[in-house]
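Saturday, quiet lab. Running sequence design on the structure tokens for the scaffold JK sent over.
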């Protein structure tokens, strides 16, 4: 169910009801891109079933899903069309368009080509654990996770978030585990790692499907390289890749996790998968943070909303991001 996780701490005092969250999400429900829209995003049912609720609560955990639809328009195609129009203008007037005119032509070409582009869809899962005051985003990059956080804060009134930080840096801890071969209790080191130097060369060494308890790895660490990624397994049940920014990537639940589970229909399978995934990861995450020296809240109570510019374009595209539905203001 989850492939990547970026972990946030939920600020105190945010305790909305399920109906309140559902109503807030409904104001930003997903609608497909219009003919001249580069992007549309909005909330869809986590189950993937039309007209199902926009929030699912399973074993006390909240599940949301943000859908993104984007028209694919390569810059080279826009440039080709701009050059074509510019050539026509030069032929008709005898003068080449200037910089300002070329900028206007780029907007004209984009507007003209967008309806002809095919649309690409993707979605991002959000998992909220209210009892633990944690929010996890299944995003492939930290920048994408920050963009989702910005949208969540605009959508859900009173929500404040900040990244979970460990007392010791993941890079320092991963280096120590590789040097002495002793990871935190319950964890094992697997066969994938990335080491990067901190000097101006930024040299990188990657190991894949390779033993890491070797002198060569320790020599790289001694020479100043630091781990940026390390494959690990928790309790022989969940494998993942830990990054130096405390993200979990390539999450994989091992076969033993699903032993004895009835497949059931699609609805039952969603409930079972969600319960299993959150149950396993709810044990892994605190154990991992403890292995990194515990949580270090150096930001105090400062929420992400104070760290992210409020006028930042969601998804940071050249074209303004167009959110489906009304402007998110759930508690007007």
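Result came back. Writing it out in full:
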């Amino acid at each position: 169910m989850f492939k990547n996780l970026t972990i946030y701490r939920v600020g105190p005092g945010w305790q909305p009801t399920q109906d309140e969250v559902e109503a807030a999400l409904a104001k930003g429900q997903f609608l497909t891109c219009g003919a001249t829209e580069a992007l549309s995003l909005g909330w869809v049912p986590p189950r993937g079933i039309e007209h199902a609720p926009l929030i699912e609560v399973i074993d006390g955990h909240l599940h949301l899903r943000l859908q993104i639809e984007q028209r694919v328009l390569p810059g080279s195609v826009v440039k080709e069309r701009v050059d074509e129009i510019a050539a026509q203008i030069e032929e008709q007037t005898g003068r080449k368009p200037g910089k300002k005119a070329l900028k206007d032509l780029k907007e004209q070409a984009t507007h003209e080509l967008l309806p002809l582009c095919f649309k690409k869809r993707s979605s991002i899962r959000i998992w909220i654990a209210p009892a633990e005051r944690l929010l996890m985003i299944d995003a492939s990059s930290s920048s994408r996770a920050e963009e989702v956080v910005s949208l969540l804060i605009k959508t859900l009134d009173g929500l404040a978030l900040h990244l979970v930080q460990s007392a010791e840096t993941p890079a320092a801890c991963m280096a120590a585990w590789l040097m002495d071969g002793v990871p935190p209790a319950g964890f094992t080191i697997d066969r994938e790692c990335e080491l990067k130097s901190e000097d101006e060369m930024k040299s990188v060494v990657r190991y894949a499907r390779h033993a890491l308890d070797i002198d060569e790895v320790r020599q790289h660490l001694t020479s100043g390289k630091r781990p940026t990624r390390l494959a690990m397994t928790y309790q022989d049940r969940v494998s993942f890749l830990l990054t130096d920014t405390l993200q979990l990537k390539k999450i994989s639940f091992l076969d033993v996790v699903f032993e004895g589970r009835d497949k059931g229909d699609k609805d039952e399978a969603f409930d079972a998968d969600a319960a299993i995934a959150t149950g396993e990861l709810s044990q892994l995450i605190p154990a991992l943070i403890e292995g990194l020296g515990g949580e270090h809240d150096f930001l105090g109570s400062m929420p992400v909303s104070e760290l992210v510019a409020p006028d930042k374009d969601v998804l940071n595209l050249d074209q303004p991001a167009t959110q489906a539905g009304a402007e998110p203001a759930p508690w007007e």
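Notes for JK: The CA atoms of residues 50 and 158 lie 29 Å apart. Helices lie at 18-26, 75-93, 99-113, 142-155, 170-180, 215-222, 266-291. Ask whether to fix the surface positions before the next round.
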